[in-house]
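Lay summary. Proteins are chains of building blocks that fold into shapes, and those shapes determine what they do. In this project we predict the shape from the chain. Here is one chain we studied, written as its sequence of building blocks.
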Amino acid sequence: MSVLQVYLSWVNSVLRESSRPVDNVAALQDGRIMCELIDALAPNADLVAKAQGSGSSQQQVYIQMVLNHMKENDIKVTVSAQDVIDGDIKSILDLMWLLILNYGVHSIGQNAYQRSVGIGKRNLLEWCQKELEVAFDHRNTLTLNLCTGNWFIKLLHKFAGYHIQESEDKVSYLYKLLEEIEERYGIRRTIISSNDIVDGTVDEHALMIYLSLLKKRVYSAGRQSRREMFSVDGKEAAMSRIQERNRSLSSEAEQSRKQMDDMSSPEREDTSDRVSSRDNSLSPPPLKENIPSQSLDSAETSDWLSSSPNSLVETKDRVAANKHSSSLQADAEQVLQQTIKRTSQAALSTVRQR
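And here is the predicted shape, written in a compact code that computers can read:
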């Protein structure tokens, strides 16, 4: 597969909503296509609008807009607008690679020194590691890491192969995966060859181009799903799922409580028996020797009832009260006698003085 075919496939993947496909180098000579590419990858650029606002729709104006935007973002460009207009294939391909690397593989908002080929490969390999949950050897090439062990096929299978019947023929199976990816994410399958992937001879740059598109489209699809989830309909659906989940959890919790109650019932009965037995052990045994086998008369019944713990306490209280009352009476009599004695002595003293 030629480099030009790879680049044209990348252009059509980026401009997938465009009504006019780009299928030859002459279309790339039209500076408007390059302006549309930059506008799609750097939304704040607005190069097409600026070119149209200049009052001129000449090819050179569009190309110069592209070159100026690249230079403003510290991209070293050695191609002139005239080279593109003249149809110099090498200059056009060089310019296209700079667009792909700085705007496609990387983000133009990054620092210029971070938008290198080596850093791009490393970032893509790290993304593949995360998605596949595997550790690659960064000392090896991107192609060697992904083609060995069919990791590239497994990556595509993750995003598009859940309903595709896996086949022993890896080439045909990979071709079906590439078709499904194109249908779902708009990435042209002509960027890479199934045979080259299986043989491990795929071009490193072509693999970078495909992976960078896949990474962005997967990320965009995830963002779209989140936006739909937080939309009005999405919120209602999410709330419905949450309520259903809560009902399920409540049911599970109720079942768990019932199981715990069933398991703890014998223990509670056993505990109740132990408490009852302990209470009975604390109660004083009946005085069987004082209770005749025949019916009790009133006096015996009174004596037997008074032997209960509560009766004993009441009896002690009465005895203490009686003792206290007797003590008070004795004190009163003593005070009275002393008063009478003092009165008598005073009266006798008065008589003698007279």
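What the prediction tells us: DSSP finds 16 helices and no strands in the chain.
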